[in-house]
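Intended use. Records like the one below are meant for learning the mapping from a protein sequence to its folded structure. Do not use them to infer anything beyond what is encoded.
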Amino acid sequence: MKNQTSFYSSDSDSSVSLKFKVDALFDQQISHWNLAKQNYEALQTIESKTLNVLGFPMQVQFNPSRIVSSAAKVDPKSIQQRPCFLCEKNRPAEQEGILVHDQYWILVNPFPIFPKHLTIPFVEHVDQRIDGHFGDMLDLAKALPDFVLFYNGPQCGASAPDHLHFQAGNKGFLPLEINWSAWKHYAENVVELPNFTLLRHITYPHAMLVMESSERQPLISWFKNLYKQLDTNTNEVEPMLNLLCSWKNEQWTVWLFPRRLHRPTCYFADGTQQLLISPASVDLGGVFITPREEDFQKVTTTDLATIMDEVSITCDLLNRICHTLQKP
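Structure written out for the chain above:
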């Protein structure tokens, strides 16, 4: 029988209570689930290096277990031919979880990037779409203040585009989250209101918009506005984007990465020209995952800059979006 609890209420101690439950879940899963135990132990000895990308320190991690995600087939035919691994009925018997607000399961991710890595699927099998669920992401970030929440769009790194889910990783790991207070000085205001700020980072290697507020509703309203502005390609199931979200000092910070490509040119290259890097929220936040050792050894600063530039929307399109948002 899987553990169940309620997570979000007016009780100021609710997030504290959830923290204890999540910590206990990690201890239980690493003790009783061999797959998770092996991969979290392996995480402690993986190789990593730092590359300076246009003035921003980025980590590169050699993590073989992430081949499951990096090389995942996400075309409709492949999705239809496999059982959904996020649905409760298909999950491994060893995988326990915490049911939050009768809407989301908190699960330990058995293929971790972070020292503590959660997968948070919706209870129902519905497509990966952020529209109508952005408020859930805010609530989860506030309920899990020791974690950064992230969302990968169905064509932007989600290995389960057929099942709505978020992920979360412990704070103090992503360069963007760690350095934001300093890097924020290189951003410009697009919208500044008493209870809401929308920033555009000027020099980051990938197009990035950042929303900050201590109030939930302005974030939801402005996200809907942004979502509409980004919906420029009617062939996509939703605007291509990745999101990171953090609750700190009684306010939310949401980093939004608008995209134009799922995977960069190097992913499909032949022979020694190939780099099996499929960027998603974690990569765009400054930790690039290489599941093959040869890619880890040969990837360069120029490679990372090119990857981020290729998958990002253009500067001209971002300028037009910001100009529209500035109109009264």
